[in-house]
């Protein structure tokens, strides 16, 4: 699916706090709740096999959390079932979307009417980041990982293309839901990288302050 007109106007949405999906990236998920098992089964019957990953936001005095305005749809590209009936799936990011309204109905999971307008670039080829200073960035990343006692395959990171590197880190680093939303909404790969740098530097400053106390 390479054009906006090919995409559906209503999709199932999976409001999973802290889970971030970006265009062309892959997100593995473990599905076990009955309502989401039903969502996967229904999704596989559609020609597009799309599920919208979206964050929730708190509403003052609200009993139910509202959906954020922007999410990212992923195509179900891998599926396996465990012996006890759980699903292991992979979503491959297709395009971000804007949630217009929730759709009421008889499904146990949530659905939303959406607009793809404004995210046409998501359906294109990989983005590049002309201002990306890789050595400096990897040095910052190393300090960030050390501070949080995280490990990674540094050889793979050094060889990864700009988009794969920046988007994978945006998805995997342990930022809070609001920060993940900011990374999702970044209008370009360069802006996402700048946001990622800001978040890592902020975490490092906080860590330094803690160590000084």
UniProtKB/TrEMBL annotation:
PROSITE patterns: LON_N. It comes from Roseicitreum antarcticum. Gene3D superfamilies: LON domain-like. SMART domains: LON. This is Lon N-terminal domain-containing protein. Residues 11-204 form the Lon N-terminal domain. It comes from the Bacteria. SUPFAM superfamilies: PUA domain-like.
């Amino acid at each position: 699916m390479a054009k906006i007109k090919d995409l559906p106007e209503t999709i199932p949405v999976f409001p999973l706090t802290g889970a971030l999906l970006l265009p062309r990236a892959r997100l593995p998920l473990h599905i076990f709740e009955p309502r989401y098992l039903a969502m996967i089964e229904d999704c596989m019957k559609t020609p597009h096999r799309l599920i919208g990953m979206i964050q929730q936001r708190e509403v003052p005095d609200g009993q139910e959390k509202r959906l954020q305005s922007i999410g990212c749809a992923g195509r179900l590209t891998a599926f396996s079932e465990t012996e006890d009936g759980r699903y292991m799936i992979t979503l491959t990011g297709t395009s971000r979307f804007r949630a217009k309204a929730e759709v009421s109905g008889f499904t146990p999971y949530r659905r939303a009417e959406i607009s793809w307008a404004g995210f046409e670039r998501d359906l294109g080829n990989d983005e590049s980041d002309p201002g990306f200073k890789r050595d400096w960035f990897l040095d910052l990343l190393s300090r960030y990982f050390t501070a949080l006692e995280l490990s990674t395959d540094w050889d793979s990171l050094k060889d990864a293309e700009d988009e794969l590197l920046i988007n994978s880190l945006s998805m995997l680093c342990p930022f809070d839901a609001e920060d993940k939303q900011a990374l999702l909404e970044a209008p370009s790969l360069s802006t996402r990288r700048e946001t990622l740098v800001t978040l890592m530097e902020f975490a490092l400053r906080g860590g330094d302050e803690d160590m000084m106390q």
